[in-house]
Design goal:
The protein is an alpha/beta fold. It folds into two domains: 170 residues, NAD(P)-binding Rossmann-like Domain (Rossmann fold, 3-Layer(aba) Sandwich), CATH 3.40.50; 284 residues, Dihydrodipicolinate Reductase, domain 2 (2-Layer Sandwich). The protein is built from 13 helices and 15 strands. The strands form two sheets. A nine-stranded mixed β-sheet has the order 14-13-12-11-7-10-9-8-15. The chain has a six-stranded parallel β-sheet with strand order 3-2-1-4-5-6. Helix 1 packs across helix 11 and helix 8 packs across helix 9. It binds 6-O-phosphono-beta-D-glucopyranose. The site of 6-O-phosphono-beta-D-glucopyranose has 2 residues, from loops.
Amino acid sequence: MSTPPATTTTDTSATAPRPKPDNHVIVIFGITGDLARRKILPGLYHLAVAGLMPEKYRVVGCARPSSKMTDEEFRVYAFNAVSEFASDKPSGKEWEDFAACLTAAIDPDDGPTGLSAVVGNAEAAIGGAVRRLYHLAIPPDAMHDVIRLLGAKGLNQNARVICEKPFGTDLASAQKLNGDLEQFFDESQIFRIDHFLGKESIDNILALRFANELFEPLWRRGHVRYVQIDVPETLSIEGRGAFYEETGAFRDMVVTHLFQVLGILAMEQPTSMAAKPLRNEVNKVFESLRILDPVTVLRGQYVGYLDEPGVAQDSDTETFIALRAWVDNSRWMGVPFYLRTGKCLAESRQIITIGLREPVMEIFPDQKDGNHPDADRLIIDFKDPGSIHADFLVKQPGPEMHLGQARMNFYYRDSFQEKNNLEAYERLLLEVMLGNQALFTRSDGIERLWEVAAPLLERPRPIEYYKKGSWGPPSVADVVAPHRWTLPE
Ligand code: BG6
């Protein structure tokens, strides 16, 4: 007999009308890269299968001359990418219709297979008013040339641009990139993407906090002892040695994904879910973030990293990072936000813990002497499909008043129809096509995060080493002392 879901929910999503994006030409720069193969092409195909793509569209794969493809080669390449990474395997009419919309171009822009000609042909084939969408799935350094090319050729008209993370590598480079973009695009056309903001369970934090009166009154320093955002990964750098040497765990994960999650967790209630009020509130959190003190940031490297292809023999790039962040405002003053992430760790998890304070009066004998550490907490597991767990103390049945640990669980997979699921990239690509910037970072927000990070980038603490399959360097416990990491559970 199967166990019933722990929580009862009503799925009303089927009745909501879905807006349809305008007709689009979507150009992917970096088409031969990992991201295009793993996420963008499979994501666009899933949107097509789900009926969420525009009525008419073309997808242009743009590559450097050294890896240029014909249209036919691009379709085979896309077929392989979708077969390997999409939940919907490519087949039948659905695939044929999608494949017919794929076309290849080369950058730099010249001749009939150059970008201007290919975009022009795609627009003519669609007919009428067509929007342009450029996805810059390329490293920050490579973005400048592409942005200038788009501007010089007038391809920036009627266009939106997606910039991949990390957005720059420090404050100066982020400012430069913002400056370049602003020459040719208005801020309303620029979408700085961070796929953690497209995860259902991260978006759900807004619903959890602001659609209920159960949690929000507690969501502040008077009740919260600490917050943890913990994203350990079992995977290694997966052959991305050259990329990782430039990036490291802090730029790859913290200044991007983990800080964005922190913004959503710590923000005040926006006046609505529209982009402007929502991003205003997240940016206020970033403004209140205390500048990082490098001495308190633990940087780790797994033993064996130096043997990875593309890694320097004396590399001090961190593959692990753990730190305390502080949000110095009236809601969060004095509450530590513990952040941890790293490669080759013991488990792949993505969890947030809101650790609650102990009650002022300890009227139960069991409560004394720290018998129940971390008894009272909320855990949000945001690895898709995601779940939420509330830990609390209850009376154990029996004649005596003995306290016992209890847990209340909500699992997305048991409660809502999976068919409605959009993977993070899919959701965000759709939002860009609809022109909704709510889940994208603003230029001032991103520059503030680099400002917060500056001392760490300038004066990093020496690396500490850890074994593959562990939870990081042994001193990781010190980062959260006197508290404890929720993981391992
Ligand atoms: C990417 C990082 O942005 O996010 C990777 O570059 C990381 O290093 C990945 O593994 C984690 O995201 P997810 O949501 O796919 O687990």
